[in-house]
């Protein structure tokens, strides 16, 4: 069965979502139980018929629950989101790339099945598939289909280089992501091909964007600004606007996941923004990250301590809450700073900058210097 609706627990209660579409319908515990306990041949309840029509314009009148709604079981683990880096390999070689060395390596199929089963048992409803470039991973299609059939809502982060291929579009039409997030690296061949160090990359992106738009895929565009393209920032946003796609600017180049700074010279100083003050996050509590080998960390940035999920199984995730607490509150490298109590800097991120010997004003909320603007920043 490929359900039109998924009823699932999430950390604040229960909700119904629709694969391939944004948004959800909050459910009280009784309505969730009604769906869970319904016979598969029972008709979809009237309240859900009305709500699905109002939310997504979907008509499920007269359909059976069993053919329409997948009910994900309650879970004691409480994770709603995860990201899974299938493979660090990429067909581009961006000089700002926070992955550093991009090795082609990942789990074989049996390991992936186990990892995704663990994620499902942990309660993961929203799963980001990322890389490297996930669409060139040799097991991407199988991974997407398996996660989708487990009842996960899929977001795919991609450089868009394979979207013009009919095979890829067919796959994404069948297993629709609720969001396809595309990184945009310039508004001209010169800047885009220069930033990705790949001839023809801009043309491939534009062909893929057009094809994905025609296929009706739900997209977002991340305009990644660096010294190659900062002068084209308005034109980059205009590309997204032309297709009616929401866009966001990523202005701050971060050190690599290994804490090295060779990528930092690609920063365009004129667009650098102060990071939003860190006010706490649920990294390791309600969301986590898995690398290509099934090693779980609290998030993509805080990878210093990892749990081998294939060895430890779903119970291993319980360690992440403690690790998250330790990593997000530790001010080890800030010894002597009298402002620690009011620090608004995400510590795992600050730690990477420190290891990379980046200037203090590029990451510390109390730093002074050229960053006077306080606005939304981001990592690329
Ligand atoms: S930034 Fe993205 S597209 Fe560029 S090399 Fe890294 S993974 Fe590939
Ligand atoms: S980078 Fe910092 S703020 Fe973001 S999820 Fe990780 S710990 Fe939380």
Automatic annotation (TrEMBL):
Keyword Cell division appears in the UniProt entry: no
Gene3D superfamilies for the chain: Aldolase class I
UniProt keyword annotation of Iron-sulfur present: yes
Residues of the Radical SAM core domain: 76-282
Coiled coil: none
Entry-linked PROSITE patterns: RADICAL_SAM
InterPro entries hit by this protein: Aldolase_TIM, Radical_SAM_PqqE_MftC-like, rSAM, rSAM_sf
Keywords assigned by UniProt, alphabetized: Iron, Iron-sulfur, Metal-binding, S-adenosyl-L-methionine
UniProt protein name: Radical SAM core domain-containing protein
Annotated organism of origin: Pseudonocardia eucalypti
């Amino acid at each position: 069965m490929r359900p039109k609706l998924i009823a699932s627990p999430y950390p604040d209660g229960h909700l119904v979502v629709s694969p391939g579409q944004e948004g959800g319908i909050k459910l009280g515990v009784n309505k969730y139980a009604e769906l869970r306990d319904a016979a598969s041949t029972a008709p979809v309840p009237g309240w859900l018929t009305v709500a699905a029509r109002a939310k997504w314009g979907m008509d499920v009148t007269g359909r059976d629950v069993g053919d329409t709604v997948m009910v994900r079981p309650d879970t004691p683990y409480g994770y709603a989101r995860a990201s899974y880096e299938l493979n660090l390999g990429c067909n581009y070689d961006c000089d700002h790339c926070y992955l550093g060395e991009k090795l082609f390596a990942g789990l074989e199929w049996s390991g992936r099945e186990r990892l995704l089963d663990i994620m499902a048992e942990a309660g993961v409803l929203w799963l980001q598939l990322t890389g490297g470039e996930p669409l060139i991973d040799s097991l991407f299609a199988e991974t997407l289909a398996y996660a989708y059939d487990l009842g996960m809502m899929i977001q795919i982060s991609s450089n868009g280089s394979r979207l013009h291929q009919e095979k890829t579009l067919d796959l994404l039409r069948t297993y629709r992501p609720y969001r396809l997030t595309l990184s945009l690296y310039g508004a001209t061949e010169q800047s885009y091909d220069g930033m990705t160090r790949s001839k023809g990359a801009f043309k491939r992106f534009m062909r893929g964007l057009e094809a994905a738009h025609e296929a009706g895929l739900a997209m977002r565009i991340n305009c990644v600004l660096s010294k190659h393209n900062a002068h084209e920032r308005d034109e980059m946003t205009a590309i997204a606007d032309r297709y009616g796609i929401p866009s966001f600017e990523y202005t701050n180049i971060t050190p690599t996941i290994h804490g090295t700074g060779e990528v930092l010279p690609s920063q365009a100083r004129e667009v650098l923004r102060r990071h939003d003050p860190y006010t706490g996050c649920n990294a390791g509590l309600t969301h986590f990250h898995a690398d290509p080998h099934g090693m779980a960390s609290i998030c993509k940035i805080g990878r210093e301590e990892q749990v081998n999920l294939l060895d430890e199984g779903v119970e291993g995730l319980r360690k992440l809450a403690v690790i998250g607490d330790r990593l997000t509150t530790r001010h080890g490298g800030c010894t002597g700073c009298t402002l620690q109590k009011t620090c608004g800097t995400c510590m795992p991120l600050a730690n990477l900058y420190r290891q990379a010997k980046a200037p203090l004003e590029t990451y510390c909320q109390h730093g002074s210097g050229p960053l006077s603007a306080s606005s939304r920043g981001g990592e690329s």
